[in-house]
DNA sequence: ACCTGAACACCGTTCAAGT
DNA sequence: ACCTGAACACCGTTCAAGT
């Protein structure tokens, strides 16, 4: 049982790989195979064809090797998925669009991190499912840890008392991951991004279907059918974040006017 | 592409199945095969051996048939998983422990629904992953719809103005699903429930590992290491719900004293 | 140390054939 | 209408053998 494995994301063999790249040789195809290069290629494949089509055979094809070569560097498929997810999340968090002149302070930083993740998922639809998988089968693995740290720091800066840091940050992170999961609206494996027209049509069909549900079983769903057809995922996500932030400041930040939040920058 | 399939969860063949059970015959093993019986057996298998071990071969073994029989009734594996998830969620929502004498009103109802789902996941560890999967690959499928309806009704009763019903309910549902995902702490496939001692040891190891992280990279995680070791998942979940509820009442419910919530029953 | 590639033990799904 | 069971086209992973 590899339950509770915690952070041991490296293959048993293959640790150091600071070896110099075999200098000239041929340019593209004949590079040395490294763990990094495998992860990069995995991300490429995930972006292009989706999670279901990322197979070790597809990898060996693109890298011009055999399965044994992959498994020398990588351990297994789950580890590769985790590494790919962590890599994409890391760059998404690091390269967030600089908030216009520190706007919003700590609350603005939280919004920025959250929207950074949201946008990363829009760009890499497979990411939503992988974030969920990581959260579930490795609840405190590198991916979750990274997100917690990014949200936790501004939570602290917000003035939340230390005793509430963990609960508060958890609530934010859990909301973010839940919301981004539903919003990915891909085919689940995250293959094609899905056009804007597709999405409009989808919402239209869904909304119509909702209005024809049994009024006894689904009165509420029927009542929000129209609202849901018109909603914008990203805007709704922002609202959700602000809702949770309001809860935090109201409940935990003393001296704050309840319900008052630093104005979100209209970026 | 079966994207945006929406609610068409039935196999193309096999609709009616109100046929009388072939009366006497032998008792257990020689029942007629129905979609319902397959779903029931799937839930049994999921509970006993986890999601990874639910295969059509395992099903045919327990049901004493061949794969063709399964596929006559069921369509494909994804559909079976969805049906199993929906069945468990439906009974979890229907059989919630009656809140002690209506305590808490609408807010209490929301807590009750949320905790009902939480407890269902504790009982069926595979459920966490499946809820996530449903949310991602079928964002408005029967499972999500059912949960939305259950949360939306008390949201309405809370006094939230109609224009905010959708956003408010979404925020709650997304938090619930994100939180329950991390809390499942199984092996991901949701096989063994995991003992209390296992869990304590896991938290201990994780907490220690956190304290040895790089102070430059993970200052926040290091700071909450102790707090996380002592936390109780269910209690934390309650706090998260209350945090979101506070945000809702503060922001959307006029006439409510901000930060004041109906006292949660100490059940 | 790093890589090759055949082979193994599995999957989900299909489909002609039976009743 | 419902079921059988062999067969198909895939998986991830292993491992003796090469360099």
UniProtKB/TrEMBL annotation, chains A, B:
Q: Which UniProt keywords apply?
A: DNA-binding, Transcription, Transcription regulation
Answer whether the UniProt record assigns the keyword Lipoprotein to this protein. no
Gene3D superfamilies linked to this entry: Homeodomain-like, Tetracycline Repressor, domain 2
Residue ranges of DNA binding: 55-74
InterPro entries xref list: Homeodomain-like_sf, HTH-type_TetR-like_transc_reg, HTH_TetR, Repressor_TetR_C, Tet_transcr_reg_TetR-rel_C_sf
- Alphabetical list of Pfam families matching this protein: TetR_C_1, TetR_N
What residues does the HTH tetR-type domain cover?
A: 32-92
- This protein is called TetR/AcrR family transcriptional regulator
* Source organism (scientific name): Nonomuraea rosea
């Amino acid at each position: 049982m590899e339950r509770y494995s915690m952070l041991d994301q490296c293959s048993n063999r293959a640790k150091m790989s600071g070896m110099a790249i075999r200098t000239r040789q041929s340019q593209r195809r004949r590079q040395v195979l490294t763990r990094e290069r495998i992860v990069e290629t995995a991300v490429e494949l995930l972006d292009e064809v989706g999670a279901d089509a990322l197979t070790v055979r597809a990898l060996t094809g693109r890298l011009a090797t055999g399965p044994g070569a992959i498994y020398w560097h990588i351990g297994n498929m789950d580890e590769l998925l985790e590494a790919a997810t962590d890599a994409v999340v890391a760059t998404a968090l690091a390269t967030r669009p600089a908030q216009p002149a520190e706007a919003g302070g700590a609350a603005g930083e939280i919004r920025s991190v959250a929207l950074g993740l949201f946008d990363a998922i829009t760009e890499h639809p497979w990411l939503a499912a992988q974030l969920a998988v990581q959260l579930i089968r490795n609840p405190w693995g590198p991916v979750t840890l990274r997100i917690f740290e990014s949200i936790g720091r501004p939570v602290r800066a917000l003035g939340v008392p230390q005793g509430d840091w963990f609960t508060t940050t958890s609530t934010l992170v859990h909301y973010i991951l839940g919301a981004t999961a539903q919003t990915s609206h891909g085919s689940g494996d995250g293959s094609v991004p899905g056009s804007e027209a597709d999405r409009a049509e989808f919402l239209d069909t869904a909304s119509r279907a909702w209005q024809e549900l049994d009024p006894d079983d689904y009165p509420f769903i029927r009542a929000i059918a129209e609202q849901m057809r018109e909603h914008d995922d990203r805007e709704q996500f922002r609202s959700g974040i602000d809702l949770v932030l309001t809860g935090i400041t109201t409940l935990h930040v003393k001296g704050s006017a309840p319900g008052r939040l630093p104005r979100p920058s209209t970026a």
